[in-house]
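Worked example 3 (structure in, sequence out).
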């Protein structure tokens, strides 16, 4: 019980000290300072309108690089202000207001064309219109122009505040982003360690669930790594920034070594004599994951990490089971040889962990050449471009369809709200649709369930609070904390966000409309939420963008990325280099290979929530993703030998096979789907069976040749999987 309690406490502390909670607290503090200041100088009505301007600018306010932060937030204020004014001006004309809401919603949701950067802008623009409907009307001071000026004041002050706060928190964000990335890495390490569990007698297919979990965690780590790159690799000029950037580079290397641990597992798990070795390797990997967790905690707590104890002695003490470590027949490696190779790869992870801790403790210097070469190439652009907007005007474009779907849903919801007998808070239905309706059915269903449950719990909490007649100061504190939680966990735990947002909305409505009955507000909120989620759910089937329509493009991107990665990873530049200078082209190709596979994994996962009749072919998709993962592992193993053990390779023996393998894999993967096996490697693509020495001996060239042969074979399987996925469905 004590261990379980300690574990929960540590997890809670990691959330409390995370970058997204820090960002949520920063946003809530800005809301409190601006609304409180405006209330002090200009009165309650001005504060309510200014707070709407702040709330509209909060969704795109995420932990981000300092460069371009102001321009990231500016579209929300610039687009939101005229719409806020228009809604205010049309308050007394419901029909004309509806005619404004529908086309404005369509334009707002077109921001989804900019991907993750555009979605918060779409939400902000919708908030500007919806919350404008919520601003109370006053006889004198509540004119449309006055309300809009107060809105502009709040938005402008928050733009300045958020830009300054992001700069102040930049150093903390760097540490928190790295810690969160390390925790994502440990999750992947533990799942990979579970792969080392020996197969039971007669067991088959036991690796499929773990492989699916590995792919999902690889996708999550790829997203987290890009977010960390954007902040950690921005202007790494100071020693502290260089230290953190160097640690992030080591995380990338550890991910590669961890990927290579996937190799030869099936053979080893089927060999009973090596069950103790696999169990020992699992213990080592779990221990390394625990140590890295402690390092992440030390970073979050601002402490000096404890010294790291190398697991090399534990690896050296392993017994390799029955059979000599040499190859059993000269061409097929024995289980003992494969076990030693796997132990070597786990040892590489141990060595990278040693470097990671040495960097964190200030006992080693980062690779400044690597950091300075890569930082500009791996940070996402911050400038807005018109290209996504120009490219979305296709009938099958998902952002266009989603914009039409959202506009129809908002129009329907507004018409229903006008017909309801209690239409005092008609904007609640629209607000529910804005936060629930998403571009895919899976995301909409997830938000639908969370929204209903969260609203129910939030109504209970808010009802209890308002029934107790808490003083205004307490209500202000509650509003601030609710805003912090709602913004911080909007992506991580939407159920908690729904609870906080409900409390925020009900308490704000009570403060802005003193005299309304709290009990009726709670009941009305629940009824409006149920109506809103029902409309959002129904319209998620209108002009749907099923994942299977996106799968062909994602498969093509994956194949192209794998082919380019093979061409670059097997290039001869590393053999000709005099030292281990970073290969920027290879690192870019590696990132695209991971990112493309991540996008395919996420799309496949979302398709599981869609009707069976429109799902893509899941079985060949699963094989395609598994073979992509295996191909990356084989090429990573080759690249590792080229980088780290180049002195143990005979360049004249592997030069021609490297070129042939790269050409073969590329030709196989980029062949047309109708080519079938025409893209298979030709007879001389690999040197055929060769004698495999002990991997701890000097000459590793035969092992490189073996990896090339296996990679070429996996490429053929990958192409065949793609052909099956892209095959037109039978009638």
């Amino acid at each position: 019980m004590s261990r379980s309690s300690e574990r929960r406490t540590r997890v809670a502390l990691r959330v409390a000290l995370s970058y997204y909670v820090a960002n949520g607290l920063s946003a809530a503090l800005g809301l409190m300072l601006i609304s409180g200041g405006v209330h002090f100088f200009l009165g309650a009505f001005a504060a309510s309108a200014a707070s709407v301007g702040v709330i509209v600018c909060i969704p795109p306010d995420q932990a981000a690089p300092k460069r371009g932060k102001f321009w990231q937030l500016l579209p929300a204020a610039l687009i939101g202000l005229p719409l806020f004014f228009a809604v205010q001006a049309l308050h007394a004309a419901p029909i004309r207001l509806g005619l404004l809401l529908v086309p404005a919603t369509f334009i707002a949701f077109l921001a989804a064309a900019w991907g993750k950067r555009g979605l918060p802008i779409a939400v902000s623009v919708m908030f500007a219109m919806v919350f404008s409907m919520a601003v109370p009307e006053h006889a004198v001071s509540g004119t449309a122009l006055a309300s809009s000026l107060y809105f502009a004041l709040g938005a402008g002050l928050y733009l300045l505040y958020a830009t300054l706060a992001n700069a102040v928190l930049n150093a903390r964000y760097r540490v928190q982003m790295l810690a969160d990335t390390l925790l994502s890495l440990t999750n992947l390490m533990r799942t990979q360690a579970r792969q080392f569990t020996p197969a039971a007698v007669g067991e088959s297919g036991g690796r499929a669930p773990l492989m699916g979990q590995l792919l999902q965690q690889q996708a999550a780590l790829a997203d987290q790594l890009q977010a960390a790159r954007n902040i950690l690799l921005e202007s790494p000029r100071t020693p502290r920034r260089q230290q953190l950037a160097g640690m992030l580079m080591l995380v990338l290397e550890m991910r590669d070594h961890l990927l290579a641990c996937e190799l030869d597992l099936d053979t080893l798990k089927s060999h009973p004599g090596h069950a103790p070795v696999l169990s020992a390797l699992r213990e080592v990997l779990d221990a390394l994951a625990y140590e890295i967790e402690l390092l992440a905690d030390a970073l979050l707590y601002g402490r000096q990490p404890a010294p790291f104890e190398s697991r090399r002695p534990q690896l050296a003490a392993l017994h390799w089971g029955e059979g000599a470590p040499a190859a059993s027949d000269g061409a097929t490696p024995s289980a003992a040889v494969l076990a030693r190779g796997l132990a070597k790869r786990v040892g590489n992870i141990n060595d990278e962990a040693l470097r990671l801790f040495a960097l964190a403790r200030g006992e080693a210097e980062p690779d400044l050449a690597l950091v300075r070469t890569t930082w500009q190439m791996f940070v996402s652009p911050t400038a807005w471009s018109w290209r996504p907007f120009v490219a979305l005007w296709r009938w099958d474009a998902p952002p266009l369809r989603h914009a039409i779907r959202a506009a129809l849903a908002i129009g329907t919801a507004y018409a229903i709200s006008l017909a309801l007998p209690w239409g005092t808070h008609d904007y609640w239905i629209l607000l529910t649709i804005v936060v629930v309706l998403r571009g895919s059915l899976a995301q909409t269903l997830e938000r639908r369930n969370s929204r209903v449950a969260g609203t129910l719990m939030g109504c209970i909490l808010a009802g209890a609070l308002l029934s107790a007649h808490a003083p205004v100061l307490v209500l202000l504190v509650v509003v601030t904390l609710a805003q912090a939680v709602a913004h911080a966990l909007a992506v991580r735990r939407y159920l908690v966000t729904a609870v906080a947002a409900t409390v925020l909305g009900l308490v704000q409505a009570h403060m802005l409309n003193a005299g309304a009955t709290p009990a009726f507000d709670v009941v009305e909120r629940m009824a409006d939420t149920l109506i809103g989620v029902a409309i959002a759910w129904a319209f998620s089937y209108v002009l749907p963008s099923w994942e299977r329509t996106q799968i062909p493009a994602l498969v093509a991107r994956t194949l192209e990325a794998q082919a380019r990665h093979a061409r670059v990873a097997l290039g001869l530049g590393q053999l000709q280099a005099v030292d281990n200078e970073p290969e920027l082209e290879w690192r870019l190709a590696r990132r695209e290979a991971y990112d493309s596979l991540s996008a395919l994994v996420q799309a496949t996962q979302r398709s599981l929530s869609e009707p069976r009749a429109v799902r893509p072919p899941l079985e060949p998709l699963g094989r395609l993703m598994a073979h992509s993962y295996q191909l990356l592992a084989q090429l990573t193993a080759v690249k590792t030998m080229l980088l780290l053990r180049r002195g143990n390779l005979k360049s004249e023996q592997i030069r021609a096979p490297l070129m042939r393998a790269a050409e073969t894999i590329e030709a196989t993967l980029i062949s047309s789907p109708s080519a079938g096996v025409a893209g298979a490697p030709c007879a001389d693509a690999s040197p055929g069976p060769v004698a495999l020495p002990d991997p701890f001996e000097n000459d590793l060239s035969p092992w490189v040749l073996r990896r090339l042969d296996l990679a070429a074979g996996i490429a053929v399987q990958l192409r065949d999987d793609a052909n099956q996925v892209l095959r037109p469905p039978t009638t």
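Notes: The longest helix spans residues 275-301. Confidence is low (pLDDT under 50) at residues 201-205, 322-330, 578-582, 674-687.
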